[in-house]
From TrEMBL:
GO cellular component terms listed in the entry, alphabetical order: cytoplasm
Gene Ontology MF term list: 4-amino-4-deoxychorismate synthase activity
Limits of the Chorismate-utilising enzyme C-terminal domain: 154-410
Designated name of the protein: Anthranilate synthase component I family protein
Signal peptide limits: none
Single biological process term from Gene Ontology: 4-aminobenzoate biosynthetic process
Record-linked Pfam families: Chorismate_bind (PF00425)
Amino acid sequence: MTFHPDDIKAFKQKALQWAASFDVCCCLDSNGFNDQYSAFDFLIAAGVKAEAVAQAGDAFEALADFRKIHNGWITGFFGYDLKNETEALTSDNEDHLEFPDLYFFEPKHLIKIKGDTVSIESPAAEQIFAAIEQSTLHAPSIPAPLDIKSRFSKQDYIASVNRIKEHITRGDIYVTNFCQEFYAEDVSIDALGTYNRLNEISPNPFASFFKYHHQYILCASPERFLAKRGDKLISQPIKGTARREHDQEKDAQIKQQLRDSIKEQQENVMIVDLVRNDLTKSAVAGTVKVDELFGLYTFRQVHQMISTVSCILNLEVSPVEAIKNTFPMGSMTGAPKVSAMQLMENFERSKRGVYSGAIGYFDDKDHFDFNVVIRSIIYNAQNKYLSFQAGSAITFDADAGLEYEECLLKLKAILQVLNASIIPE
């Protein structure tokens, strides 16, 4: 059924508040950054009718089996460590968040918003709309100051980057994405309120709020991992980040510097080549192409260099197989892909888990759209553990100190919404 609330912005906030009362829910918000591939502005899936939960090993097969039975709308996430299923890899680093590697659910209630039109798919559609409209938004709480620890001191990080560069010099890899975790223990947060503040301060096109019982993903991602529209696959890797300035002239200069940076272009084109190679596994021969190279996009917190790569999907390859063939995404791995992932397991000190995985949906036409889980707070309310990670591309020309500063730039909004400071080592 369709509805037209008087205040669509307020309705979205109330709808998310309503959804967060369920044990499981997913919200996807484009924040107005709609492009030709966007199917809606805002989506909420709430309540579990059926679900698939799996660890790396047979997770993609479990999802394929689930999809055969539940072929309508489903939402869920892929954890980064599904790499151990797609390749002969392992993950032995610490994991305090304890998410499954894969989780998808068929929702009891589905709310889609496009423009000012609300579509509710549920036997109780009228009651749900009325309940949401008549509800009152809870007043946001002010977070207490929070001390954040890091798995790396700045000196440790710089030393690690320099050792990674030795592997690049030897020819083991060409580029990699090296990530570091920041965390807090014995902490309680208002997960929904924290997400709302993050989405307000850093509104990005692939924002998501995911509640899986006592575990939360609060995501302000600017990056699309992979989408399917008709018979077309689309990937939009990000490589290249620059800060914003309040002064318009300075801001324009910084954006131009990003556009002209040979280093950033080198990083971007190496990942574009990797994505092209990944897509060939699922594509009709000869259809892989680069639709846009080195596109410059501006968001509230940063400027980003984004490229778009697409192909026509081979009809013999299922949508689930197409995702498996490209996972994990090139922007969060490196080249050669397997060698980079293997090397990062040795250098990183935390299991990535959901971070640098993907959140999204399959619809009733077998279209799908998944983000890259970056710029995100991951929280386990049961063991009171909060985590966020940041990574950057390491190449032969990388300056370790500048890469560290880039990580902090990517965390600026998260630290602000948590009222947090990183404790120096």
